[in-house]
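Case 320 in the screening queue. Each case pairs one protein sequence with one candidate compound; here the compound is benzoyl-formic acid. For every case the pipeline is the same: read the inputs, emit a complex structure as tokens, and attach any notable structural observations.

Predict complex for case 320.
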Amino acid sequence: MKLVSCVASAAVLALGAQAALAQEVTLRAVSSFAEGTQFSKNFERFVEKVNKDGKGVVQINYIGGPRAMPPFEVGNAVRTRVVDMANVTGAFYSNLLPESDAFKLLGKPMSEQRKNGTWEYVNQLHNQKLNAYYLARQFHNVPFHIYLNKKIDKLDFSGLKIRVTPVYRDIVQALGGAPINTAPGEVYTALERGVVDGYGWPVSGIFDLGWDKVTKYRLEPGFYTVEVNVLVNQDAWKGLNDAQRKVLSDAALWLEGLDAENVAQNTAERERQAKAGIEPIDFGPAESQKFIQRANDVAWETVIKRNPEVGAKLRQLAGN
Ligand code: 173
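Case 320 output:
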């Protein structure tokens, strides 16, 4: 072969290899919350952003919410790469990662958690137990509440059946209530039929599925903080090139930045609940303080009992 044509064919080969490397990748994603609702909305904005910024590099094929996959199966679907990416709370995969019960106690802004080693440690837990990369965490400044349909005159849930997920189980039990675990999709019917007397849910989002029509009271104070994570299957993550990872990582930081909108939203939701006739039950600052302390203590107790080493480390990182 003449030298010229040899160089030319090498160049063609190199070009071919580059084109293959730079080929656009599409990731399949699901959400554990219904499409268009409070805890899917920002993830859906993230998908839109990735699909705009990642043209020719990386795209997300958003399959949808619980209609596509039951919420408690989403963590395992990421682990086994049935999907490449998910928007999901740790409470829905605590069967695979029992320490995820502590994530609601990590309430510092993500900018801080990324600096003080929390993100890295929580990422390692996801790597090891869920075969997942912890791309982003949302809603660190949105508290949970217990909503009730029966009025109580002290902080005592004796005789009450309360819908829970692992987020609220310990505190409901500590106050004498009977916890009943359900996915969000079953809450409306459970309330309507009186199967439960109340439920745990964040301060925001109760209007999305019409729960305001079957809710009378919101117990104060709010406690813990919401965590909804964007996870990527670890093999899928490792298979991406630097440019693809950069599009996703930049969009992840942008997504975490959207948390700045939550404080105003929390206030607006409380006002909207008041207008809808949902009354706060509030036993004053001293009782509220005791309630929060109790909620934190029982949650840490559970995590530390399950895994003393990881629990202690997470508590130190949480600083509460
Ligand atoms: O109540 C729930 O289903 C739950 O655990 C949760 C977690 C994060 C956001 C919204 C709800």
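Case 320 observations:
- The chain is about 45% helix and 20% strand.
- Confidence is low (pLDDT under 50) at residues 1-9, 11-20.
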